[in-house]
Amino acid sequence: MDTFLQRLVPDELWELFQRVVPSAPTRPQGGGRRRADDRMILAAIVYVATTGCAWRQLPPVFSASWRTVNRRFAEWSAARVWAELYRIILDELGARGELDWSRCVIDSVSVRAMKRGN
């Protein structure tokens, strides 16, 4: 994994993520395309979340289509992966004193509401 992707999903985050992500479904008939790598998909999701880029504008460095990344995001959201990951991060890093709460800033953020059909 190159340096750019390693920064998006460091080993420590990947280890925590593996504890909460559901196992990949297996297709009984076999065949088809090889499943895109979970770590690469997670890096693409982190990229979208941190840059504000649209799913359709994902750079090709992630080696997966935006549809694949978006679909996996939806699957993991339905499986409550993000909530579990958040809980583990707070529990483990907080218990070890590795969270620096003094750097947490909460401010108001304006989010534009989408009209129906847009």
Automatic annotation (TrEMBL):
This is Insertion element IS402-like domain-containing protein. InterPro entries: IS402-like_dom (IPR025161), Transposase_6_like (IPR052909). Pfam families: DUF4096. It comes from the Bacteria. It comes from Streptosporangium oxazolinicum. Residues 10-85 form the Insertion element IS402-like domain. Transmembrane segments: none annotated.
